[in-house]
TrEMBL record:
Enzyme Commission number(s) from the entry: 1.14.14.17
Entry's transmembrane regions: 6-23
Keyword Zinc-finger recorded: no
Swiss-Prot/TrEMBL catalytic activity: squalene + reduced [NADPH--hemoprotein reductase] + O2 = (S)-2,3-epoxysqualene + oxidized [NADPH--hemoprotein reductase] + H2O + H(+)
Any single GO BP term: response to hormone
This protein's name: Squalene monooxygenase
InterPro entries from the UniProt entry: FAD/NAD-bd_sf (IPR036188), Squalene_epoxidase (IPR013698), Squalene_monox (IPR040125)
Cofactor: FAD
Keyword hit for Membrane: yes
A Pfam family of this chain: NAD_binding_8
Location in or out of the cell: Membrane
Example of a GO cellular component annotation carried by this entry: endoplasmic reticulum
Its biological purpose: Catalyzes the stereospecific oxidation of squalene to (S)-2,3-epoxysqualene, and is considered to be a rate-limiting enzyme in steroid biosynthesis.
Length: 516
């Protein structure tokens, strides 16, 4: 009996200790959760987080700029980026002046300082030994406003540092493996660190900016990715561009070649190779292709530096992807940047679209204090997809259409269109100013794009018919018009005619912010 008595007292004591310990632990855990800005769970263990407003996946051009912008607006932002080292890539090296204006709106313009960025004042076009200069219409802007070209990695690091300098922004290295979805609402992300540990993080809103090769976009959109060509990248040193501080576009055969400065001593060359397969770099086929097919078509001033760059062997390749935005509005999550929408990089429009989208999204989110009503937020943000259209679609359509027009073709009508385009832009005045305003992102209006596109086609037909129209010439003219329509209309259709030209008629255009 004495045993039972002693055992009873011991059990009561143990129960009291356990109860006390449990209460203490819960209190500590609750205190830790509310105090910490970063709440996560180790090895798949889940801890509900309360302290993050917005998770951003990827800190490239879009993610880094967005993190700074939302952080500056007071949001508690958590960014997970796969690799925080300085990227070394051949993408995103020329920011159009329209994009620079967006950078100013976001307060990020100092990110092009101290990286040896070069000012860009326009483009020079080359065709069959002729060339013409197209200046950006910058007269009405502050003298600082121009395009900027730079090493993409340096620019991104500047934006990452600026974002991470805000106390309410945390930037962590990790690879996001999936979105956490519950009953159709995205609640957060699952990610892995370099040492293989898995974590889970929660926030009322997750913005996915994991770039062109996104592995997360499938659940948030209906992506139709097209790969029209690849870019082969080289860096030329110790040479001067024929037109200093200008992008250079060579209307070569089979497709365009680009040159622009990326520092005070380096010129980027991007050679477009149509299709998805490029000659092999490792077995020397690529060097042979560049020396025999490409070198004879480039301006003579750049020839020696080009051959030296090829011999040096630092040849990079990258697929050029295009993908119209096709969102599937999902509560709790949003896509942005190349993960959401891509266009051919010929016109260097990607960063301008991404930054313009960020300005729009920031303005839409600003009046909201509470992001926790995922369905109401999702419905409200549907207007983002319409409001972005006029700018984004104009830049996207111009890129796709110009790539086709600037590429060589065995079809006589298409060649006439290419010739007409070069000569139309060489006319100067409104004929060059309109198209370069579109390309620069300074005046991206869909109507202006369509008008100039068909003005080029009509100019081409006029040249064919004057002074004496022959049946063959009339036939070529008719095919030119039909070819021009066949280029532009499918792109516009994919972008969405109504959203692009009549956005105000789309119901989602006007959405009042949800009541907090
Ligand atoms: C060849 C080429 C040349 C181009 N040239 C220009 C140009 O001159 N001017 C211009 O404006 N645009 C250009 N573009 C387009 C431009 O590069 C893109 O529009 C821009 O980089 C998009 O930014 P982003 O943040 O969406 O993607 P990115 O800048 O690619 O950033 C994506 C980020 O997400 C990270 N990430 C990816 N997956 C994960 C994951 N699972 N978890 C965590 N992080 C992840 C990546 O590490 C990366 O940092 C070019 C594109 C190509 C292909």
């Amino acid at each position: 009996m004495a045993y039972e008595y002693i055992f009873g007292i011991f059990a009561c004591f143990l129960g009291f200790v356990l109860f006390y310990y449990n209460t203490r632990t819960n209190k500590t855990a609750a205190a830790a959760a509310s105090a910490s800005a970063v709440v996560s769970a180790r090895n798949g263990e889940v801890t509900e987080g309360t302290a993050t407003d917005i998770i951003i996946v990827g800190a490239g051009v879009a993610g880094a700029a967005l993190a700074y912008t939302l952080g500056k607006d007071g949001r508690r932002v958590r960014v997970i980026e796969r690799d925080l080292n300085e990227p070394d890539r051949i993408v995103g090296e020329l920011l159009q002046p329209g994009g620079y204006l967006k950078l100013i709106e976001l307060g990020l313009e100092d990110c092009v300082d101290e990286i040896d960025a070069q000012r860009v004042f326009g483009y020079a076009l080359f065709k069959d030994g002729k060339n013409t200069k197209l200046s950006y219409p910058l007269e009405n802007f502050h003298s600082d406003v121009a395009g900027r070209s730079f090493h993409n990695g340096r620019f991104i690091q500047r934006m990452r540092h600026k974002a991470a300098s805000l106390p309410n922004v945390s930037l962590e290295q990790g690879s996001v493996t999936s979105l956490i979805e519950e009953k159709g609402t995205v609640k957060g992300i699952q990610y892995k660190t370099r040492d293989g540990q898995e974590f889970i993080a929660y926030a009322p809103l997750t913005i996915v900016c994991d770039g062109g090769f996104s592995n997360l976009r499938r659940s948030l959109s209906n992506p139709k990715v097209d790969v029209p060509s690849c870019f082969v990248g080289l860096i030329l040193e110790n040479c001067e561009l024929p037109h200093a501080n200008h992008g250079h576009v060579i209307l070569a055969d089979p497709s365009p070649i680009l040159f622009y400065p990326i520092s005070s001593t380096e010129i980027r060359c991007l050679v477009d190779v149509p299709g998805q397969k490029v000659p092999s770099v490792s077995n020397g086929e690529m060097a042979h292709y560049l020396k025999t097919m490409v070198a004879p078509q480039i301006p003579p001033q750049l020839y020696t530096a080009f051959i030296t760059a090829v011999n040096k062997g630092n040849i990079r390749t990258m697929t050029n992807r295009s993908m119209p935005a096709a969102p599937q509005p999902t509560p709790g999550a949003l896509l942005l940047g190349d993960a959401f929408n891509m266009r051919h990089p010929l016109t260097g429009g990607g960063m301008t679209v991404a930054l313009s989208d960020i300005v729009l999204l920031r303005d839409l989110l600003r009046p909201l204090h509470n992001l926790h009503d995922a369905s109401a937020l999702c419905r409200y943000l549907e207007s983002f997809y319409t409001l972005r259209k006029p700018v984004a679609s104009t830049i996207n359509t111009l890129a796709g259409a110009l790539y086709k027009v600037f590429s060589a073709s065995a079809d006589k009508a298409r060649e006439e269109m290419r010739e007409a385009c070069f000569d139309y832009l060489s006319l100067g005045g409104a004929f060059s100013e309109g198209p370069i305003s579109l390309l620069s992102g300074l005046n991206p209006h869909p109507i202006s794009l369509v008008l100039h596109f068909f003005a080029v086609a009509i100019y081409g037909v006029g040249r064919l018919l004057l002074p004496f129209p022959s049946p063959t010439r009339i036939w070529t003219g008719a095919r030119l018009i039909s070819g021009a329509s066949g280029i532009i209309f499918p792109i516009i259709r994919a972008e969405g005619v109504r959203q692009m030209f009549f956005p105000a008629t789309v119901p989602a255009y006007y959405r009042a912010p949800p009541v907090d």
